[in-house]
Amino acid sequence: MIFYNLITMKKYKIYLSALIIVLVTLVSCNKFLEVNPKSNWKDDTFYSTKEEATLALSGIYSQLAKEELYGYKFNVTLEAGTDETYTNDPSPNWNAAKYALTSSSDEVKGVWLKFYSCIQLVNQFEKNLKPDMFSTEEYNRLLAKALFIRGFSYFTLANWFGPVPLRLTPSTSQKDNILAPSPVFEVYKQAEKDYLFAAEHLDHAKASTYNPGEPNKMAAHGLLARLYLKMGGYQPYLADNDANCYFENPQQYFDKAKEQCEIIINDGWHTIVPYSTDKDSYRNHFLNYLKDKYDLKESLFEISFGNLYASGINVSGRLGNINGVEFVGTANIPRGFANFNVALPVYEIYAAEDVRRNWSIAGYRNKYNSTTQLFTMTYIFDNPLHFEYGIGKFRRWEPTNITELKSKGTTGMVNAIYTILNSTTGSDVDPNFTSINFPILRYSDVLLMHAEAIIGGRYGTADGTAAVASLNKVRERAGLTPYSGSLAHNDFFKELVDERLRELCFEGLRKQDLIRWNMLEEKLIETNAAITGHSSFISTDQYHQTYLEPGKNFDKSKHLLLPYPLQETLINTSLKQRLGW
Fold first, then answer.
1. Is residue 215 left, alpha or beta, with left meaning phi > 0 and alpha meaning psi from -120 to 50?
2. Is it the case that residue 312 has pLDDT exceeding 70?
3. How far is residue 292's CA from residue 524's CA, in Å, rounded to a whole number?
4. Model-level pTM?
């Protein structure tokens, strides 16, 4: 994740590429620390100027934009297998999306290594940043940017792996690899500490000194709210009995989450453009991610790609490609492979008048015939079990005349005109990699977290009276009337579960939402029942059977957490693989 306005890319791309190589080498090969390198860029002398510190931070950020993390393997592949999305590919290449992974799966190894690479780089940064070279304010601001990423890394690792080794100093020798995992509560408390420091010392996004795309003050508050909601929720590693899988006095964490959300809400700067102002507000917000633009009012934090391959920076964004709309066959097209489908419950959960429906679900495809060398574009919106029922939220292209395409029905249009939405030069027709940014925290999420915190989550006691205002702000932007259903706790909580799916689908949040609510197994059962009960379901269709695999493979006793990577358990003899793996 490198930011164009952070440095001039043409001037620094060579230096930045070299720096990233140096930093990552220091992570993976400590023998280099025993030699005096010819370059002045070594870990104990590099961080003495603002320019050097900024370059080092860019090296840290770039780890998040690699293929193993937010390029697609983590936020798309491992996130699949819920009521939100599933793969349509029956091959074993996508087993990680079907709960058929193992401790040696590349996806598992990659997530672990890249987040720990971030942590190692942050630990080096914290150790070697020279406080006497900066004002106290500038030193704290630089450090806060790094600690924000460390808090984010540890929070995410604990969510997906449970207890993990808690390393707070740089690893410098092989013996440093031998470290027992810390209880998740301790890992969360460290993430809390890092986030609190970041919230105190980071710039506000409205500040003239803020660089769009970097961590900022309100993003830290928002991720603290997400942390506290998780701490108030289900902890699957604590006990075999569901009733004992909660931290002591979980209500305290909902109170803290509410407080953090209200810091953002009461600050008044972040917002969403209402439907009454712009009926295309939802669509236009996501067009910003597609076009490398920052909507700082709504997007509190995002992973920035910018198709930096063209600038010599090795990041691997494949949003809109792996999880995009079908369009393959020739060169110079906005290629989309549609390896992942919109799950049937997403199609069914929207009201027809909800403007998010037609953006989240593409409902069309462009199929190439190698014999005729022609493309046929068809409209498939109301065929939700179609094997290329593509995700629309990060679409690279769309039909120029969708009304005409609808009128053609299943016949389709040959060589129909289309509009490229991901129009950044170098990304618009790249066969694999895109410049599409990925949202980590949006203001609408803050509003929905606020509503959930007020009622105390799934097992709280408060009703929705005080929470409905935050819910309605999200609904209004979707073109919907205010919520008029029951405010009784259980009914209102169910509405929040559904609203988070409608608003935040395909943004890498659903699986962890369902886990902290202890609802993942329940939703997989409901999803498979919906698939097999649908009028277009065919039991002999290989794609329909593939949609069912996550629900069939899921084992609650093991799949609420990832296994520790095999190579880590071999290297770290204090890291014992959990039962079942």
1. beta
2. no
3. 35
4. 0.93
